[in-house]
Amino acid sequence: MRSIAILGSTGSVGRSTLAVVDAFPDALRVVGLAAGGNLELLAAQIERYTPELVSVRNPADVEPLRARLTRRVEIVCGAGGASAVASMSSADAVIAAIVGAAGIPPVHAALMAGKRVGIANKEVLVAAGDVMTRAAAEHGGEILPVDSEHNAVHQALRCGEHREVQRIILTASGGPFLRRDPQTFANITIADALAHPTWKMGNKISIDSATMMNKGLEVIEAHHLFDMPADRIDILIHPQSIVHSMVEYIDGSIMAQLSTTDMKFPIQYALLYPERVTAPFARLDLAKIRSLDFLEVDVRRFPAVALAYAACRAGGSMPAVLNAANEVAVERFLAAELPFTGIVEVVSRVLDKHAASVAPIHSVDDALGWDAWARSEARGIAVAVER
Question: Most buried of the four, 130, 135, 194, 365, by CB within 10 Å?
């Protein structure tokens, strides 16, 4: 029996994780939950899964949550509360699905405590990848990717040695604007950008998919996860989203991982690794697949990709700044304070400002410090580029 803690239990990844727990009740049990403000759903999860420790984001939510429960449970709050759930002694594994930089401290706490961490939050490794990989190496922690693309790479890498890898190929759906005229991008509405053609995701991730910043962030994440330089990590657009990623080996062989577009598959893999067990989820019917298309990325259409590659090559604090500026720009777009094209414009301007002051990231505090700086800069620039 493997005991797990879930950071972000009321979000889409958290709910999918609990569906995996339901599918394997003899192999998995929940000991900790951390969530934001959806108290009704969190209360229902507590009643069903009986965790030992629960964390809410806001201190004011502790008593309202307690009032909804029929059972006693320890409730903590804030960033410290999420870290307490992540590092609890009874947890063998942690699923990290808290969106944004808020996920950095609890993931670090989990790795410092020697936990296996299934990371669904790109920002943790983008902003503090060196810190996280060092914590895992020094304290016996383990990082397993839950993002479908990196999970696919992890599986494909089991086919050979690291020295035999030619390149990693991340696939991208291309989002909702793959074939839209770039001349009309300034007129893209919030509803347009949230209409992902393949995956059902949260608002922030959906916007990142529309700009393809999500794929740029994944390049940086893959760099840290698989110890691979940026120039050996490629992106191909694959509109069907069936091949989740590939690994090309030096002999020309390409190993691909395919499955339905369901997050339960990579979550199951991360929680039960290295075992493979029979899954009750919907399978891929290869006979019904008429074609698998692959296209190169047009960086003129998706300039966010080029910004992310440049940040990965620069290293140090640059990826943290990229990530934070993008978070603010996306927030401003969703608040109707920026046009769609303003997202990348804001990020680009913040990166230009930071170019002369790039510094190493030695600690979580370093990462959060540059995160705060970039957010402040992005908020100011966002006003200047309003349309």
Answer: 135
Task: Classify strands 233-237 and 142-145 as parallel, antiparallel or unpaired.
Answer: unpaired
Residue pair 212/172 in contact (Cβ under 8 Å)? The answer is yes
The predicted pLDDT at position 199 comes to 61
Cβ–Cβ under 8 Å, residues 111 and 132: yes
Report the pLDDT value the prediction gives residue 383, as an integer from 0 to 100. Answer: 46
Query: What is the C-alpha separation between 60 and 274, in angstroms, rounded?
Result: 41
Cβ contact 85:59 at 8 Å: no
- Token pair, residue 10, equals 């009321």
Cα gap 106→121, rounded to integer Å: 12
Quote the CA–CA distance of 78 and 101 in Å, as a whole number: 14
Is residue 171 within 8 Å of residue 218, measured between CB atoms?
Answer: no
**With contact defined as beta carbons under 8 Å apart, do 286 and 293 qualify?**
no
Both tokens of 337, joined, read: 């304070």
pLDDT digits (tens, 9 = 90+) for 205-255: 899 999 999 999 999 999 999 999 999 999 999 999 999 999 999 999 999
- Minimal CA–CA distance to 261: which of 200, 174, 336, 332? 200
The amino acid at 169: I
Q: Judge contact between 135 and 113, C-beta under 8 A.
A: no
Residues 6 or more apart in contact with residue 363 via CB below 8 angstroms: 131
User: Structural domains in the chain?
Assistant: 2-145 (3.40.50.720), 151-384 (1.10.1740.10)
As separate numbers, helices (DSSP H) first and strands (DSSP E) second, the chain gives 15, 12
